[in-house]
Every structure is written in C-alpha cells, then in structure tokens.
Amino acid sequence: MAQILAPSTQWKMKIAEIYSTYTTPTTSKMSSLLLRQNKKGAHTSSNKFQVLAIKSENSTINRLENLLNLDITPYTNKIIAEYIWIGGTGIDMRSKSRTIPSPVEHPSEIPRWNYDGSSTGQTTGVDSEVYLYPQAIFKDPFRGGDNILVICDSYTQEGEPIPTNKRHGAAEIFSHPKVIAEVPWFGIEQEYTLLQKNVKWPLGWPLGGYPGPQGPYYCGTGADKSFGRDIADAHYKACLYAGINISGTNGEVMPGQWEYQVGPCVGIEAADHIWCSRYILERITEQAGVVLSFDPKPIEGDWNGAGCHTNFSTKSMREDDGYEVIKKAIINLSLRHKEHISAYGEGNERRLTGKHETTNIDTFSWGVANRGCSIRVGRDTEKNGKGYMEDRRPASNMDPYVVTALLAETSILWEPTLEAEALAAQNTSLKAKKNHATGLPPCIYVDLPS
C-alpha cells in the first residue's frame, strides 16, 4: 500500500512562491481580484491559491501547467528517463517513464528494463516479459532539465532480439569493418500527414470535401495554403533541443502534408534520430489534438503520397571518381530491387504508381535530377564527379533501421555474380541509348532479373 505523505514546509514555500508570481492571463476578473488583495495585504499565499481555484474558469488547467513546468532541480538530483521502443506493428511507438538516480551521459549508464509484450503484440500472455536495452539518449524537450528520452530495442530474457527488433540486425551491418571504413552518410526526408482528430481527414480540408488542386501548397504561405505550420515549427525546435540532427522542414505538395529532413548522420545514428524525431512529433500532435499519419497514400486520387526519401553516400562516393562508385552501387540496387521494395514500407504499392513524382513499384530506374526515377542523382554530383544518390522508393512508414542497413549492405558488402552485373550494365546502356533517341525524360530503366 502506498504511503501518503504531507508536503514538506519547503514544498509549501515553493507552491506559495509559484502562485505569488502567477501572471497567466486567464480572466480579467481574477487578475483584478488578485491585485486588490495584494494591495490590501490581507490574504496569505494560500488564500491566493484558493482565489485561483474558485474564481478562475481555467484554474485546473493553470495549476496543471505550473506543475508540468515545475523545476525540480533545486530539490533532487534524480531525473526522469522516458524509455521508447517500437511496438508489434513495426511502426507504433511505445514509451514509459522511470526515475534515474542522477543525470547520465551515455546509454550504458541507464538500467535495462522490461515491459508486457503481450500488450504490444510482441509476445503471448504466457511468457510476456520483453527486455529493453537502452541504445541512444536525447534531451527531453517536454520535461526539460536533465531529463532524457531513451531509444531502446527489445530482447527476450535470454538476450535474443525479438522479431520486431530491426535495430539489432542493422547494428551488425554497421559494425562490419568494410562499412565502418566507408563512413556511410544518410540524409532522410520524412514526410507525414496531419489529420483532423474525429474525422481522420487532412488538416485544413473541408469536411467531406476537397481543397483546390495541388500546386500552391508546396512550400506555400497563407491561411488557405499552409495547414499545421505551428506543429511543424514546434517539432523543429523540439528536435534541435533534443539533439536530433534535423536540418530543415517544409510544407509538402498535398495540403496538410509536411516534411522534415534529418542528417547527415553516420550509420545507425540516422535511424536512431529518425525514430526519436517521430516520437517527438507524435507527442506534439497528441498535445495539439491532431492525428499524425505516416500512411504512404493517405488520400486516394490525384494527390501526392508520402515518402521517406533516403539520401546516401559512402567515403568512396564522396571522393574523386566517386560517380563511378555511385553507378556501381546503382547496378547493385537494381539487382536487389525486389528485396528492397519488400522492406520499404507497408502500402507502398499505393504510392509507387509511376505518377506524382514516383516510378512504378515493379520498375527500377535512375536518372540525373529526375524525381520520377527510383534513384535520383543530383546535378552537382554528375558535374563534380562525386557526391551522393537519393533512393526515392522508401515509404513514409518505412523502418529506418531496415532501409539504411539495406542500402549499406547492398552498396558496400553485397557482391553480385559477374554475369548478373554485366547483364545489368548492358541493359542500362541499351536503355540509355533508347531514351536519348526517343526524347524520353533522362531516366534510365533497368530490366529486373526474373
């Protein structure tokens, strides 16, 4: 049975201090009443608290906000760690809080924990304990101070990664000596859609209806073109505070849809940062009363889908003659297209139709500055003979551990047979000549192996 303790004198003094300096604009009646009482000097701070509780229409909310913003550092060295992990669907995020004795600087200082896997769709009720291993820490923008967000992955009691733990396999690939030597960089463009809470219809859209056609919304400004900017800006600042390497944000082509970019990050760090940024966005939309969707095609019809384009380069690609290394990696990617597509997000076939800046899901292609290809190479990369490439196939709900690890594996570790590589190179050359002759857009299509 929990023991109920009365507040200490120190805490009573703190509460009195908070409410004696209370300035939140609630109602003019409440403010004027407090001023009159302060002038008369007839009431103590506890009476001021009663006035707030009785007279203010928003008193409960106001007191709650004060407690949420309470600075506990003068009274304890303890901090709150929010353990975050991925649930049974592979895209849902779960979290719970734990008190840590003192501030920490590394995940190894944080104790392992467990949770009920039968309630997250990851185990049965007979043997339901799943163990959390802390892997990355970020500053907590919601609680502030030394409090932290902890990205974890999940294991059985015997220390085996559970099937939904994709981080473990990614860590093995990124710890390979060849991969380490290539210092893989990732820049991930996370698109998402904001939905009205009760109707699950995009923010800013008329209920049961549609806005004007696409065109003015991409990077648009104005009440009739930009919906949800406060959420996007709040998320931007919260990520910077947390230590996430967020590099930008913008309104997307479909109204109510936004994008932010994370990177460049090295190796598995990119996926850790994306997962933490997603968690922060979930929390912000929760507070705003808006539903966050990572569906790759939230609205059917003539509307853009939502992707998670992944920019990638290796040390060899960034050095002189790196363009040839990029083209070799593209050949590898073409030969493993089906394997990549199967791991690039649920429902991606509704998005990769060949329309709305995509290529068909059953086709592999690449081109310079062409957003209708599977792989886009920037003009500067072609001009400078080195740089990076962009994989435009991943859906907005992709698992960044899976996608980044696959790109590193296919580009650095995987070696095709000489026959397959020669055939892919030959097909690429023939398709390029055909495109040039017919005047088609500069996108090179590669015949996929059967």
TrEMBL record:
<dbReference type="Pfam" id="PF00120">
    <property type="entry name" value="Gln-synt_C"/>
</dbReference>
<dbReference type="GO" id="GO:0005524">
    <property type="term" value="F:ATP binding"/>
</dbReference>
<dbReference type="InterPro" id="IPR050292">
    <property type="entry name" value="Glutamine_Synthetase"/>
</dbReference>
<keyword id="KW-0547">Nucleotide-binding</keyword>
<dbReference type="GO" id="GO:0006542">
    <property type="term" value="P:glutamine biosynthetic process"/>
</dbReference>
<keyword id="KW-0067">ATP-binding</keyword>
<protein>
    <recommendedName>
        <fullName>Glutamine synthetase</fullName>
        <ecNumber>6.3.1.2</ecNumber>
    </recommendedName>
</protein>
<dbReference type="GO" id="GO:0004356">
    <property type="term" value="F:glutamine synthetase activity"/>
</dbReference>
<dbReference type="InterPro" id="IPR014746">
    <property type="entry name" value="Gln_synth/guanido_kin_cat_dom"/>
</dbReference>
<keyword id="KW-0150">Chloroplast</keyword>
<keyword id="KW-0934">Plastid</keyword>
<keyword id="KW-0809">Transit peptide</keyword>
<dbReference type="InterPro" id="IPR027303">
    <property type="entry name" value="Gln_synth_gly_rich_site"/>
</dbReference>
<keyword id="KW-0436">Ligase</keyword>
<dbReference type="InterPro" id="IPR027302">
    <property type="entry name" value="Gln_synth_N_conserv_site"/>
</dbReference>
<comment type="subunit">
    <text>Homooctamer.</text>
</comment>
<dbReference type="InterPro" id="IPR008147">
    <property type="entry name" value="Gln_synt_N"/>
</dbReference>
<dbReference type="GO" id="GO:0009507">
    <property type="term" value="C:chloroplast"/>
</dbReference>
<feature type="domain" description="GS beta-grasp">
    <location>
        <begin position="79"/>
        <end position="159"/>
    </location>
</feature>
<feature type="domain" description="GS catalytic">
    <location>
        <begin position="166"/>
        <end position="450"/>
    </location>
</feature>
<comment type="similarity">
    <text>Belongs to the glutamine synthetase family.</text>
</comment>
<dbReference type="InterPro" id="IPR008146">
    <property type="entry name" value="Gln_synth_cat_dom"/>
</dbReference>
<dbReference type="InterPro" id="IPR036651">
    <property type="entry name" value="Gln_synt_N_sf"/>
</dbReference>
<feature type="region of interest" description="Disordered">
    <location>
        <begin position="97"/>
        <end position="116"/>
    </location>
</feature>
